[in-house]
Task: structure prediction
Amino acid sequence: MIKVLVAEDELPLLRGISRLIEKINSDFTVVKMAKTGKEAMDYLEEYPVDVVFTDINMPVVDGLELLEYVSGKMPSAASVVISGYQDFTYAQKALRFGVKNYLVKPVDKKELEQLLEQLKDGFYARERERKGRMLGDMVHGKIVQGKKQGQGAAAFCRIYPVYLIAKAYCVYSMEEEELEPEIWKDWKVEEFPWLDQYGIERIYSYDGRNANEMLLLLEAADEPDVEGLIGRMREWGGIGCPVAAAVGEPAADGTDMRKDIGKLQRKIYANWIYGRSGIVDGEGEELFHLSKTAEEALQYMIKNRQYKDFRKLMLDIKEQMRLEGITQRSLERCLDNIMMFLRAYGTAFQGKAEGDLRYEINGIVVRADNLDEIFEEFLLWCHELMFTESEEDTKALMGKLDVYIQTHYKEALSTKMLALEFGLVPSYLSKLFQDYKGLTPNHYIQEIRIEKAKELLADCPGMMTKDIALMIGYADPSYFSKVFKKSTGVYPSEYRIKDK
Result:
């Protein structure tokens, strides 16, 4: 309900305008009828309102003083001047206090009806924006309870959190160079036109940890049809890859929303059947198990370098996974166990922590579009590890890769592109290069670009930042500035001033 104060020194007009406002639009309720500006200000000291209608010529405190008070104390409130004085000077003075609406007595009913509709639209737009900012602060842990912002539990018991992950769950924060074009880039969720069909009044969206993740907060009187919503939105947004969603309980008073969101992320990872779209539920039951016989056979083949038989058995395992359904977490655990067999019977993993291998396996799953691609890359990796080149050959190959990066750093390089160029699996190439250089290829490329940027900023003071970004391989100047700040602690413009 939109709370209104009406200030008018002529009692019949005060009552008439107040009744007319409530009669014309039921979203408005007149909470105070003040006969003087002083009476209005005394009320507003205790009880803020959303809209103030005021006459200009009133005793004790006139309308202009009241408008000045409202502008200073309640800047979000809308003000409307109602006056028999048609002199433009009054309107000019009122403009200084943010007044955009001016009605002349006697008030025209149709004119008031149009004005109330505009005020209502503005009020609800501001409410959505304010609530969205507040929810965003809660999502990012800046506040932990809605009550701290003057919100009661009723404001949050209708907010349903929904976490979305497209394609696959990534256990780490991916660098933007590792990502394909953002899935949600043109997905203007707030403009989705069919919310009411799924029992939703309003929707708020926030970025997830990575570009393939998104958080939705759905405002609804009852539990909404999230599964129907997600299916329709995938069609609407033209998303071809699988999308998993986990739905949480209403946020109550907003306590620990960030923790609740973390639970939704983990729920997806533990229960998402790889490659399927829909609502993720369940208690993490494992649908797929690698038999003891299969494990022993794989170990024997790895130990004796029988790659042909190893590949055949792995492809059979893949089809069994596809048939039975496998969660992403189970899939990664299975591949991780096989990698441990390779670790046990080879020397390629000396000095490599087990946790690092799990990250690399997760990277294979995140980069792939389907189960076939996962196994193809994983099998290539296994082949390279089972038949490793000599240390001298590996060092020579990485030296060539180093030179290639230094020569082509201005181009759109990525680990995946480099792997294609040098005939290696991306994850294995990254491991070899990190052992050789102490940095992943992506970090090394970034390091070279930042050093070149520093040189250009110092030597070419007249060159624009966007041109420098293009010269060193960044098509997006804003992203270049972000990377530069992360690397150096200052933005390019600040670095240029500091260098002087």
